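Appendix B: complex inputs.
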Amino acid sequence: MTKLIGLALFAAACGTTTKPATDPPPTWGVPITGGTILATHDNQRVVVADPDRDRLMVVQLATGATVEIPLQAGDEPGRLIEDAASRIHVALRRGGAVVTLQGTDIVARRAVCAEPRGLAYDAAADAIDVACATGELVTLPAAGGDATRSVFVDRDLRDVLIINNTLYVTRFKKAELLALDASGTITSRTVMPTVERFDNSGEGGAQPPAPGDGGVGSGDTTGLISSIPAVAWRAVALPNGQIAVVHQRAAQRELSVHHGGYGGIGCGSSPIESTITIVTPPNGTNPAATFATAPLQGALPVDLAVSSSGQLAVALAGGKMITTAFASSLAADSEQGCKSNGQGSGDDLGAPTSVAFDGNGDLIAYYPELPALVVTQNGAKRTITLPGDLGYDSGRNMFHEQTPSGLACASCHPEGRDDGLVWKFQELGPRRTQVLAGSILARAPYHWTGDQADLPTLMDDVFAVRMAGTLPTNSEHRSLGPFLERIPAPAPVGLANGDAAARGKAIFESSDTACLGCHAGPLMSTKQIVDVGTGGAFKVPSLVGVGARAPFLHDGCATTLMDRFTTCGGGDLHGKTSQLSAAQLSDLVAYLETL
Amino acid sequence: MSGSGRGLGVAVTLCVRITLALVLVAFVQVGCGADEALLGKDCVSTEDQTFDLENPDTPTAFKIEQCRVDVDACTPLCTYVLDQHSISSSSGASACDVEFEGAVTHVKASYQVFNGGPNCPVEADNQPPGGF
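Resulting structure:
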């Protein structure tokens, strides 16, 4: 009896404590995009766009008092800009609109395009310019009203800047800076610089010469590899008229599928480098842009801010840190690529996704998971905890986590999509990065040859082996798929109701072309592994969102969709299109761009 | 801790201790087997530390909340707490057990230390993470 009473007391006591949950919580959040906070001109407020919770927040810097402004589910607010009348305009990345905030009230919501990205305020015209990933540049009157202009510039637009009355837009995957004239026509196209460097990967590439061997500084460039620009996460204007861009660079060396095959531990060994490039745009004196470029330590340089005194701050979400430096003090790029630029630190609050300076030069960083702002004033830090439940998704965490290879999943799959690159593998040959967004779970098996049966298998192989990360936990295995599943496919880049697209649809569905034999169903893929004359047997890729993912085919041999039917693509082993005229091929391409 | 009564507090402590002891025995058995095979039983030993966290700072509270909703996030919490207490180990927390009791979080972290015996390998320096 005494024992029973003891057991009862024991059980009752145990009931007062709780253990951690063993099942992962519901999937949460969206891929990190960066650049979702704004310090207002009056130095009193920070406006936070919270893409993970579909809301805006207006935070009083002095007190931390916060007003929440709910948006529609799935809006995914992104970039913000303030106009001369203190209105805040916010791009809704998935909502396809711009909302305008006056104080804490939404006074307008205007549809702009399928995927609005960057915003700029044109003070001369009192207008907002909106860059769209689908290629349009849309101009809205700041005070309200319909769009006054929509011109097609180029696909995959990102940030918009207005400097000395010239409009600049960046392109995300290509890391390009386009200058536009008043009509929206491209007047110059500047690509971030390619850098030649020694391969420190230990993957069979050349190593930097030992001191005294010549090589560096001697003009001997034997063994140098190119590191090409990619994925321009953010661009901002500097006070002196220059433009700072944080982007990635991709080392043009072979990767391997064995352990650590994407890069080893140590400087300069990662195939993807975070980089800041300071661009001096062409002007009357200098006909061509000039650059200063420097590597940064840490993966995923998702945001960049500049203070009125010229101090730079970069949020490195993969490295969970923020680096600050002055442009003039950035260590110039070197062949060895082992420079450490700026002063980096983290706040142990997860991944910082956005940074801003207020007019006093205080640095403000946004951490969405807690959520919180950290304000750094004269070296002292103050945390403002924002309203909202903890945002936690181990799959999301893993997706953005920097591994010992220096990479995160999101390095090659920014925003859950792709980097637009073709990587060379020792064992596999060329492989164009695949898009993750868009019904990922239904697209198993994975990789070009379908050799990865499911996501946990792929995670164990790619994250833990190739990227040299830790073995995924049970929670990560169960969470990554649902997180990725919620990322929609890229929006179509073509007009669904165009005549050409309608004709192309008929061609696509014709038995003569036999496209539907493989590209059928909701995914437009039967998921068969077939050899269509492109260099091996590959899984039929989905065509949903295909227009947004050039270059095409496993080796990226087709720069455009038209190239797939002309330059390369397997000929009549890959559908039957040789009988189509140029006009019919053009119609077919128009249709594919509507998918 | 502000429990409803001393008797209840004792029972809780008893409960926690028994639970932790069972977990510890399991981990020690598994862990020691692997260590002995690799390094010899005199090279590595497992130490335990228990921390009762009340009014934690923001970063610690953040990690506590992550652990609360996902047991797989608890080992990083244990490693973080060890780091905060300047307890060095070769690979962070080797075992971690967390319980929540009102405003208090009980964190028990196990970690391995090298004994540095004459026939033991020299502990490698921690390598910096990949980067530039």
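Confidence is low (pLDDT under 50) at residues 1-13, 204-220 of chain A.
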